[in-house]
């Protein structure tokens, strides 16, 4: 029995990544809790687990007394000397218990506490693992797609997480077996274990993809100043180089556009505008309105951060974008309210 028990613990350690020592501690506690029932809950039962010798020792420690006051905790000298000849009054004696004699109820109790201990350990391990990945980019495998809710179950390492429909890229179809990039927005400890919040729509996903693909961002030469995103459609990212000789936009695009095209592929074809950041708000707003040209940017109210951008008449719709998307993303990127005005001053009807 002992050999099988220790092999089972080793297997749990290998499969679940739970330290064996933690399991032995929980199992010993479970055995003690279960065995104490036979002694009216008195704290006299002990359990020693020795994995090296593959031995489990369960025993009751009783007091050797002249006259018994409590049958659960006391033994007379005569009773004690039947177990150990050297027993003396005033000392204690350890009486071994046979685990197989605990009975069905005790065994069930032990099983329950062991299971609970394993669940707690798993939750602790999961929380630890997820917390180390908070705000990170991960590759996950689709294991299930709920046809009713549209929620997707993803396998992340040894754990699973749910990608809600609201956090999926609009129009994107994920199928069982697909690998996809996700961003860990937050990790919280819930009543039923750790709760991991993941997303494919969060701007952090784009930020991390650029860090992965652009070595100059990873090593700190280029800094991502801000990201604004409407997932599945368009993203704008503002970058700044600490080294004047390094072109931040060119580095992010990469040789023959390879770096940005890898990111576009990971985002399912989402358009990406890479914008050069400037401390000068006029320059920054003008750059943020790409792909439109900008003739001039006028600051209307510095405190309220509002400005007016003048664009060539033929590029008015490009500057505003489909349903106002381009100017909306530029405003989010720069944190300025942007009013668009055609160069002629006349708006086309």
A few lines on this structure:
The chain has 349 residues and is an alpha+beta fold. The chain has helices at residues 2-16, 20-35, 77-83, 104-131, 203-213, 215-218, 248-253, 258-266, 281-288, 316-320, 325-334, and strands at residues 45-50, 55-65, 74-76, 92-97, 137-145, 152-156, 159-163, 179-190, 193-199, 222-230, 234-241, 271-276, 296-301, 306-311, 337-342. It contains eleven helices and 15 strands.
Any overview of this molecule?
This protein has 11 helices and 15 strands. By secondary structure, the chain is of the alpha+beta class. The strands form 4 sheets. Strands 7-6-5-8-9 form a 5-stranded antiparallel beta sheet. Strand 8 and strand 9 form a beta hairpin. The longest helix has 28 residues, at 104-131. The model has no long low-confidence stretch (mean pLDDT 89).
* SS summary, helix count: 11
Spatially, the strands of the biggest sheet line up as 7-6-5-8-9
Please compute the radius of gyration using only Cα atoms: 33 Å
What is the 3D form? Answer: rod-shaped
Query: How would a textbook summarize the main sheet?
Result: 5 strands, antiparallel
Overall helicity: 25-40%
What is the typical, i.e. mean, pLDDT? 89
Structural class: alpha+beta
Low-confidence stretches: none
Strand content: 25-35%
The SSE string, one letter per element, is HHEEEHEHEEEEEHHEEHHEHEEHHE
**N-C termini distance:** 87 Å
According to DSSP, the number of beta strands is 15
